[in-house]
Amino acid sequence: MSDMTLRQWLLTDAPTSRRHARLASLYKGWLSLRSNTMAMFGLGILVALLLMAFLAPILAPHDPYAQDLANRLLPLGTEGHVLGTDSLGRDILSRLIHGSRITLYIVTLVALIAPLAGLLVGTIAGYTGGWADVVLMRITDIFLAFPRLVLALAFVAALGAGIENAVLAISLTAWPPYARIARAETLTIRSSDYISAVRLQGANPIRIITKHIWPLCISSLIVRVTLDMAGIILAAAGLGFLGLGAQPPSPEWGAMISEGRRFILDHWWVATMPGLAIFTVSLAFNLLGDGLRDVLDPKDGGQ
Amino acid sequence: MALTEDKGERHPRAPLAPWLRGTLVTLGSISVTMLGLLLVTFVIGRVMPIDPVLAIVGERASQSTYDAVYEQLGLDKPIIVQFLYYLGDVVRGDFGMSLLNARPVSEDIARVFPATLELATLGTLIGVFLGVPLGVIAAVRRGSWIDQIARVVALVGYSMPIFWLGLMGLLIFYGILGWVGGPGRLDIFYQDIVPSRTGMILLDSAIAGEWGVFRNAFSHIVLPASLLGYYSLAYISRMTRSFMLEQMSAEYVTTARVKGMSERAVIWGHAFKNIRVQLITVIALSYANLLEGSVLTEIIFSWPGIGSYITTALLSADMNAVLGGTVVIGLIFICLNIFSDLLYKVFDPRSK
Amino acid sequence: MNAMNRLLSGAVLGLAVALTAPMSAAWAETPPNMLVIANRIDDITTLDPAESFEFAGSDVSRNVYMKLVNFDPANLDAGYQPEIAESWTVSDDGKTITFTIREGLTFHSGNPVTAADVEFSLRRAVILNKTPAFILTQFGFTAENVEETIVADGNTVTITTDKPYATSFVLNCLTSTIGGIVDMKTVMENEVDGDMGNTWLKTNSAGSGAYKLVSWKPNESVTLEANPDFYLGAPNMERVIVRHVQESASQRLLLERGDIDVARNLNPEDIAGAAEAEGVKIYDELRGRLMYLAFSQKHPELSKPEVRQAMKYLVDYQGMQDSFLSGQYTIHQNFLPRTFLGAVDENPFTYDVEKAKELLAAAGVPEGLEIEAGVREAQERIEIAQTYQNALAQVGIKLNITVGTAKQILARYRARELDVYIGAWGPDYPDPHTNAGTFAYNPDNSDEAQATGLLAWRNSWDTGGLTEKTAAAVVENDRDKRVEMYAEIQSQFRETSPFAIMFQKIEQAAMRENVENLNLGGATTAVSYWPVTK
């Protein structure tokens, strides 16, 4: 198939198979996303971030852990250290580049764990109804009513500081909204004729939930996840800032701000550079999420 | 966000009046949620590897001092018994004593919560008065430059690490320009002038007619409140925009336009009127989030609020303080939810 | 990326302009009769002298409570001086000290200070048995025997110890916070459930010192008011307000703008910056706190003598002192802080990777050894940890750093779970035994002993004979001989102990130029506000 015919095949009004239809709608979504400059800008930044993380050892001019106490707190634009050096004389640029791996790692894990947990709880509650629904939703309420940072802090304090525990803690605070979304979607889907038909064919509940309900919940979850990414990054940085995230000498961006804030008055770049990095990435996620929302469910009010 | 949406349940024997039943169900769900909240916090407190006894007696204490405090805290009893004791106290309104500063937790909360309330209220006001019009205009002029600017303003707000913005704001507006007051709620020589009635200094000084204190308090609160206000603005304006978009594409708007109604009347008289309830829910949610206490803002601005209170307590194993603070915040959260649910029921024509 | 670039350069430009702009706004000023201090006071948990044990608490206590003997802020080196006790005599067997109480002193309440108050205060501290009680109970006082061992008679008070301790040791201990004399009448009026007024005194004061407590708001402020009847004359500063300000940057901004008079927690970079600000001066004082590394002797590798030595050669003492610790810590490798009785000044260890490698090779340490270090959430300690981690990496040892809150790390340290601990130790009372008795004293090294207060025990170190020498030094009444004994103990300790003592603290207080005579307390005591003028 040439490019032209592929495009036509994707843009057809009469899909020939279920796969064809799905691909076609994805492509249409992509086209409409592509026309959104800001979303593409966000996507561009994220692709750059991915590349940066992937090529970190090649891109970084220095070893991110190499200390040099004699050359600490060098200003921006110093030869060999474009973004200066930190309190222990480590190259800030190299640390930022390597830190992108940690950021991606945290974001990816949370973005997998929290929505999945929420999806599971929400669909089970929504589909089964009755007391299971009451119990599950009550638990969701309890976690929602919890002050989020307290919950995360308590969790990290209980299990010990570290990236993995920070990821779990953030997931723990992030899942309840997904559960609510998934439950709401399930409630509307459950009573649809299509599900009744499947049920009449004798499909068991597990199959109905995983094969028929989950796929329909995914799109609203994806939008929500993308919009939450920035929050996740900021939460991780906040934990790092409080010393409960990544452990030294790891170049986690939040921890870098925390280290640099002591010099904020005279050596402002030490905290500002990781601050800008966090800002850029969360902005990128927000731009993309905003665009995705327009594409995937244009009427969505976020509720 | 509704807490009382379990309408799927069937109660075959329900001779109670519907309103009474509704109230009972609501009260029941509040107490279950609160109980769960308490239990989770309590368990976290007990499994944390921070030793509350050590937190009290410190590094140098002898073993006999340690043991005495251990017993005094009731830690030698089974955890269930400890929880029941605690529960009994809470029901009687007694949150116990803070392990670390030897005061009743309720007294501490009465001191720190108004500080957060003041900050969150001002922040929310800023968010509402700027965010709502911004959201409406962005929706009406969808795709225009003003929409784009509103989008960028909001997304930048979502994306900025607050601790960085806070420090920079402090440096520039206080340290260099001297336009606003520094960290803390008041300058030293304005302290203890106004008697504390509400704990909110702006309100207290206005009641007492001490306008010097009022001005000083305002100069201190304006920067942190603007920061929080910016976040709240970001959220509220985005939400307003999407609610409005939904309304603007509705049939009745087209009809009204066709009928020759002025654009202003269509927007404010019809569309905006219809999103009021949704909007209040969003504002309530954003308010609740600020009331949780923005820990980082509070730390940076030396603001003695509930967020930093709970955090400090948590990190030093002062579990009574953590439990007390969590209960208060949980209660507020739940109340705000119920409040917006009620609004839905009262105003939303569809639910009648 | 264009927009981002513009945003970035805009931000940088804006900042650059902002940072170089002249400080045009008018200076604020604190009232002339008021001293306003920014300090971290979140460690205060109680202000009862029988219970208070933290830095910020002893700052309050020193100005509120008088003691039998005390330090003169104008001449700390002179050692303890008479205060409530006008004079004292020691019995021939060296076990009994009789204090004569000064006439004409009054408490803030107006009640006279009597021998009965002294008796009550000391007995109370022993009976309550709170954290700092060990400072008194180490002399053999117990709740059961105080009726015989601490006795008032007329205007004298007699205390009888179980052994003939060095008199200087006993009196030095009485200068610490727990020696504060409280107003018996006022305290007992506020007794609840037989707590000897403990609950009330946590948040109130009943002393006779230069200041009385107006209020303590946890994590917010402590306010003191001058006592016009103070026996040395009414203090100049009628009010002293200590405000809790966590961030160094915030403290510096407040100071530079004149909203406070003194900032006590500026980091080296902010000190350097503040020193250049108009109207600000920096004042240095050597304090008693030591920064040290400790190595668990339960660890099969760390317990080898060569490894203990090697570890001490892997600390970049000079590098750290000259960089991120600049001006705030000075190299000191002995457990007695400088200015203490018996302190020595020998610092033989330097950063020497080659030597460490040789020692490790001789000990047969396997390649790729991994050990865990616990450090609490305090930036300078984390940086020390990272510097050390970097040095260990050069000899093929991987140091995993676990950062936690003070209490988390401490709990594991006390449970003997950490391989390496990076921490600080401050003397409890101004006598050499306070540090000797914890670094070099461990009579029972078994797990069951639970001597969690002893640093030697926490690191499972049996001290190799130093325990006996320490016990002997504390009952030696000849001052010169005592000094000699501590010199010997420290010399052996330096070479054999699993402790690498690195630095002694220098407190740098930044203050407005008009603040005079603020003494922070040196290595031996706490801050005194009464001599301060503005």
Automatic annotation (TrEMBL), chain A:
InterPro entries linked to this entry: BP-dependent_transpt_permease, MetI-like, MetI-like_sf, OppC_N
Keyword NAD among record annotations: no
GO biological process, one term: protein transport
Residues of the ABC transmembrane type-1 domain: 100-289
Transmembrane segment boundaries: 38-60, 102-129, 149-175, 221-247, 267-289
GO molecular function: dipeptide transmembrane transporter activity
Record membrane topology: Multi-pass membrane protein
Matching Pfam families: BPD_transp_1 (PF00528), OppC_N (PF12911)
Cellular compartments annotated: Cell membrane
Keywords of this entry: Cell membrane, Membrane, Peptide transport, Protein transport, Transmembrane, Transmembrane helix, Transport
GO cellular component terms, semicolon-separated: plasma membrane
Superkingdom, natural source: Bacteria
Family note: Belongs to the binding-protein-dependent transport system permease family.
Entry protein name: Peptide/nickel transport system permease protein
Organism of provenance: Cribrihabitans marinus
TrEMBL record, chain B:
Protein name according to UniProt: Peptide/nickel transport system permease protein
InterPro entries: BPD_transp_1_N, MetI-like, MetI-like_sf
Source organism superkingdom: Bacteria
Domain ABC transmembrane type-1: 113-344
Gene3D superfamilies: MetI-like
Annotated keywords: Cell membrane, Membrane, Transmembrane, Transmembrane helix, Transport
Compartments (UniProt record): Cell membrane
Transmembrane intervals: 20-44, 119-140, 152-177, 217-236, 279-301, 321-344
Main localization (coarse): membrane
Alphabetical list of SUPFAM superfamilies matching this protein: MetI-like (SSF161098)
Protein's membrane topology: Multi-pass membrane protein
Keyword Lipid metabolism attributed: no
An MF annotation (GO) of this entry: dipeptide transmembrane transporter activity
UniProt record similarity statement: Belongs to the binding-protein-dependent transport system permease family.
Pfam families in the record: BPD_transp_1, BPD_transp_1_N
GO CC term (a single one): plasma membrane
TrEMBL record, chain C:
Highest taxon above the source species: Bacteria
Cellular compartment(s): Periplasm
SUPFAM superfamilies: Periplasmic binding protein-like II
GO MF term (any one): peptide transmembrane transporter activity
Record's protein name: Peptide/nickel transport system substrate-binding protein
Annotated ranges, domain Solute-binding protein family: 80-445
Coiled coil start-end: none
One GO cellular component, as annotated: outer membrane-bounded periplasmic space
Keywords: Signal
Organism: Cribrihabitans marinus
Spans through the membrane: none
Signal peptide: 1-28
A Pfam entry, by short name: SBP_bac_5
Entry-linked InterPro entries: Peptide/Ni-bd, SBP_5, SBP_5_dom
Gene Ontology BP annotations: peptide transport
Family: Belongs to the bacterial solute-binding protein 5 family.
